[in-house]
Amino acid sequence: MITLYGLGPMFGLPEASPFVTKTEVQLKLLGLPYRKERGRPEQSPKGQVPFIDDDGARIADSHFIREHLERKHGKDLDAGLDARQRAEAWAVERMLENHFAAATRHARWFIPENFAKGPAHLVDGAPEELRPKLREELLARVRESFRAIGVGRHSDEEVVELGVRSLEALSVLLGDKPYLFGARPAGVDATAFAMLAGILTPFFDAPLRRRAEGFANLVAYAARGMREFYPEHPWEAPPAARPGA
């Protein structure tokens, strides 16, 4: 039995981490039975979630988890895609994970109200008297990592505009299709759904979320994914898309 380790349901989402969500959706698309448990980064071979335990083998990082599962079970999440589509899927995945994900995390961590109601609670398992210091240290580490990758060097407004550029590109690529490459989801749809759900959750208010709500096809795509992959999870879809996205 495969065990998937993640953060668990938080922030109005069935799973707080979009990368864990990506892996969970890919497990569902592959039709593989699994169980899910909360995990801590220090338990992971790479110090991050998601990671899985597959009959004693521990694999970390959503990309390498996918590679392991497809190889072991002889499955291909991109079956039906031609060489060009596979290249496009990889480019979209990199855009979302290496670029757009940073903008969404910025909205969670660096808007004080969002940090206070969201990531600050990641240390709630510690003794109460230690939590304020742990929250300060956690935020400082994240701020340092954001500066190292470059996002932390931009103004809040610039980060939002960079995120919107990715939303615009994704909206054009999706068009009026149910999924990015047609009627059936491919591997990259797990990533796109996870990232969009992460920014569209009504739990956090942020300029990037309000801009995301202006892309009607992306809002519908996220709602469709929630119905498809997490039918038991109540999802408050945004109202009709606002003009001027």
Count of strand segments: 4
Helix and strand sequence: EHEEEHHHHHHHH
Secondary-structure class: alpha+beta
Specify the CATH architecture of the largest domain: Up-down Bundle
Task: Give an account of the 3D structure.
With 245 residues, the chain is of the alpha+beta class. It has 2 domains: 2-73, Glutaredoxin; 83-229, Up-down Bundle (Glutathione S-transferase Yfyf (Class Pi), Chain A, domain 2), CATH 1.20.1050.10. 53% of the residues lie in helices and 7% in strands. The chain has 9 helices and 4 strands; from the N terminus they run βαβββαααααααα. The chain has helices at residues 18-30, 62-73, 83-109, 112-117, 131-149, 156-174, 187-200, 207-212, 216-229; strands at residues 2-6, 34-38, 51-54, 57-60. It has a 4-stranded mixed β-sheet, covered by helices on one side. A hairpin with a 2-residue loop joins β3 and β4. α1 (18-30) packs antiparallel against α7 and α3 packs parallel to α7 (187-200). The mean pLDDT is 95.
Task: Give the tags.
single chain; 245 residues; alpha+beta; Glutaredoxin; Glutathione S-transferase Yfyf (Class Pi), Chain A, domain 2; 2 domains; four-stranded mixed beta sheet; 4 strands; 53% helix; globular
Structure described in brief:
This protein is an alpha+beta fold and about 240 residues long.
Task: Tell me the layout of helices and strands.
Blueprint: E1 2-6, H1 18-30, E2 34-38, E3 51-54, E4 57-60, H2 62-73, H3 83-109, H4 112-117, H5 131-149, H6 156-174, H7 187-200, H8 207-212, H9 216-229
Parallel strand pairs: 1-2
Antiparallel strand pairs: 1-3, 3-4
Helix pairs in contact: 1-2, 1-7, 3-6, 3-7, 7-9
